[in-house]
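Case study 2.
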Amino acid sequence: MLARPTPQPAPGWADEVDWVVLDPADRPRAFEHALDGVSVVFNLAGSSGAVASNTDPLASLESNCAQQLHFFKACERSAAMPHVVFASSRLVYAQAGSEPVTEQHPVAPASVYAAHKQCIESYHRIFAERGALSFTVCRISNPYGWDEKAPGKAHGFINALVQRALAREPLTIFGNGRQLRDYLYIADLVQLLRLCAERAEARNELLNIGCGASVSIIDAARIIQRAFGGGPIECRPWPKEYAAVESGDYVADVSKARAALGRSAIHDFTAGIDRVHAVVSEPAPHSAFAEAALGQGRG
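Prediction:
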């Protein structure tokens, strides 16, 4: 596993993998080490947050596009020709209202973050044509799952609401909350990404990775409120910087991914939130990996 330097302590499972810390002064060596003997790469690298990317677009460029080019050049130098599963975003799409969005829907990023995701999608295609790799580009909808670090993040709306509910704080949403979103439980996302690595039908394809059933933001808040028993729901006016990147309704057409991967997400939003509640109630340490295992084991 290749990761950027961080002041945070390594997770408990770090000793079970070959953990490579990216040295900014010697990125080629770090990438080559991480690619040694590897046939599949789950490309999750980059900074997140549409609002943050518009505030500091140069930092977004460096942590996303520039970092990715170092990775692709390392793939080109490697003889392995890895298959790369790239975590892109549904935010690359133009607004579609309540119409289901297929992979052929026009793109029109509203944030620097989304524009960089679209750019990196093109990098995958370019380097695949040069024989450096194969790829699956996954335009992922809104993932959620237990995340104890959610209060410190400017993204991850559902995880932030869960934290607020646990603290009996108001569940704050912007506007009237009627916008539709496709929320994807972490256990389903993990399984679908794994299949993108395994299935020949997913090679060199662009796939919508989502639940396939949309829920309004206000209804999502109500489901969280019922599950965790806390926090009144408060609607507030849109802050200017958030209104600028608001995507409107999003209804994902996941039929292409279903056909390529041979399965769909198995948790609707209510079931996914119930799994999050179960993870919070577990005495074992919380992690996205533990939650994925719990969700699949009981799903």
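The chain has one domain: 37-298.
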